[in-house]
Amino acid sequence: MAEPEIPESFLEGYAQMLGETAVSGRRPTREELDIRRDLGRQAAEAGHQLRALVRMHLSETRTAWPAAAPGASPASIAASTDSVLAAVEQAVDAFADGFERAQRLTVRREEAARREFIDDLLYGRSNLGRLAERATRFGLRLSRAHAVAVATGAEAYTETDAVPRQVESALLARFSGRKILLTTKDGRMVCIAPGSQPDVLRYFAKQAHAATDGGRVAVGRAHRGPGGVVQSYDEALDALDLADRMDLDDPVLYAADLLVYPVLTRDRQAMADLVRSELGPLQKARGGAEPLLRTLSVYFDAGCVAAETARRLSLSVRALTYRLERIHQLTGSDPTDPTHRYTLQTAVIGARLLDWPAKEL
């Protein structure tokens, strides 16, 4: 594709300055250099390429190079040439300075607009219709369903850090042309992708987990519309919080797989009553309820297999059996009895969700 033609106006006063420099040996004035900077700014705002602009200046230099005066000595010609080249250097440098300043200002404005859009999008602020209009500028069509993945690591990240840039490079290399928005928010990496392209978020999760050296990623469900992005983002954050409270060790969590937990806590008071009724007696044990509560949690996670539970807890099978018997004595419910198991397991899940016994119910 051919580059757009560059107006000759960006060379305004350039040839005249070179001619006067050749005659008098003077340097470009401050006013002349300020004009070059202003022209550089205008060229950047017009969307021209700096390389083409520099090439245009050099071409004009060859065309307008002042001829030597008749009878001029080699020394005077050399001095004139040196002055002209110095003037070319100063003029082009001033032009490039103005161009780069304008570009940096444009980048800062774009970054500010992008950050404002992301904040409005993820927090559900701004008029939804206006938000959808702004989204097209960043490659999103909010009338369609989108899903959000959130990745955490050992440290807080910003967009300029090496880890987010590494993840972004991997995604753009694999999914060039896809409508994907990558950013950071509150120290976490965030990826927004069309709900019809789950492979994007799976790949993001894989790359983020590796780049953060074992960090955790949560993926919200796909929802339609501007409010759908907020909902998916909130689901991903809730999944990360749930993983911490439930000691889930999965590196990638899907909100769709964790729906049972919000269901269990929808009636918080009923769950609190169950925890107090079923597990409250464990507080009478030596060392409090926490060691026996963890024993139950690991036992259920291990499929109620005593040998595997003992291995995970670094106990002998005999020591584990004693603990299970002690739980039976205190609560009246036998963890090894299928008829008691469901109630106990539900109470254990409720205790983790409600952060009991650390918090009073």
CATH fold annotation of the largest domain: Alpha-Beta Plaits
Question: Number of domains in the coordinates?
Answer: 3
Low-confidence stretches: none
Mean pLDDT: 87
Instruction: Please compute the radius of gyration using only Cα atoms.
Output: 34 Å
Which CATH architecture of the largest domain is right?
2-Layer Sandwich
Q: Describe the largest sheet.
A: 6 strands, mixed
Helical content stands at: 55-70%
Please tally the β strands and state the result.
Answer: 6
| First-last Cα distance | 69 Å
- Oligomeric state of the chains in view: single chain
Shape: elongated
User: So how many helices?
Assistant: 14
Run of helices and strands: HHHHHEHEEHEEHEHHHHHH
Structural class by secondary-structure content: alpha+beta
Strand content: 5-15%
CATH class term of the largest domain: Alpha Beta
Q: Determine the CATH superfamily of the largest domain.
A: Reverse transcriptase/Diguanylate cyclase domain
Protein name: Helix-turn-helix domain-containing protein
Organism: Streptomyces castrisilvae
Domain PucR C-terminal helix-turn-helix: 292-348
Domain CdaR GGDEF-like: 124-242
